[in-house]
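Can't paste images in this forum, so I'm doing it all in text. The chain is below; anyone willing to post the predicted structure tokens underneath?
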Amino acid sequence: MGGNQFGTIFRVTTFGESHGPALGCVVDGCPAGVPLDREALRGELQRRRPGGGGPATTRHEEDTPEILSGVFEGKTLGSPIAIMVRNTNQHSGDYEALRDVYRPGHADWTWEAKYGFRDHRGGGRSSGRETLGRVAAGAVAKALLREYGMRIQAWTSSVAGIAVPGPQDPGFDPAEGEQNPLRIPHRETAAQVLRVIEQIRAEGDSAGGTVSCVVHGVPAGLGEPVFGKLDALLAGAMLSLGAAKGIEFGEGFAAACGRGSCQNDRPIPAAVQALPPQVPGLRYQSNRAGGILGGISTGMALEFRVAFKPVPSISKAQQTVDRRGTVRELSIRGRHDVCMVPRAVPVVEAMTALVLADLLLLHRADRIRSEPYGPCP
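Text version of the structure:
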């Protein structure tokens, strides 16, 4: 009956189903006095919401948040923060033909095997819409992290096998990533990927990709030995997302092909150290471990990448089975993403914020004096 809660001190419970009346979250353990802007919260949900164009589903939801408790005059009270978003554009009838049929690549069979019963309307809790509660909670965590100078930025780094230029490459522009529905921070690549996405849509198929994330301002010392390591917690957070299938930190799997003499730490030239955090280039090349050593943050930028499989809901005909074991041909109708990677960008940021907020509060209890972090203003 568990599995809906996340965190130790900064604790989050999410609730709701894709076609139920509402979804949301309850955040407990957030310190009092953290500025929480309702419009900033709404903005995070808008980044994730369906109906944004491009590869996204045609389901249109406003996703307007209602803060039910825990906030007064724009600041957190220290009490549980309840946030709810009502569903207004469900087309549950689109799923009636799937009541007794298991969709290929979905959690239909596994949920029924576990509970003996399932919500066939869009997958219920296994739907990607479940991430709405995570993004709402992540907005609260981001507000806390901003008080300590931490900034999280994720972007689409590949789609359908097309790699997006990184921060060290010409033309990389984080602002551009928020101006196109693909969340690709490189204008020429975004146009190329959009053409490919439209072709995949015309074929009734879908595409996967990766999301990269960088966190600036992470202090050294975050992470709990031995089973609460920063990278382990981030991996667990990312792989709790329905379509996530892999994660790598820093150079990731490419590091397995190198030698220790190339992968180990080395002094960073003074000229590079003097660069402001937003300047790309050598600063990124020198952070091979992704900002984590021994499961604890090093004080450098935190860097990782998450891989997402293609959306399994496709209109192309497939074979599957029903509850009686009869082989059926299935063409899934309804409103679905061609590629959900762009909408995963704010979700990756949210889960990163939840992990860091929890570890930050845990770290404040690690020693009597913790001047580098200070009291929450």
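The longest strand covers residues 151-159. The domain at 5-363 is CATH 3.60.150.10 (Chorismate synthase, AroC fold).
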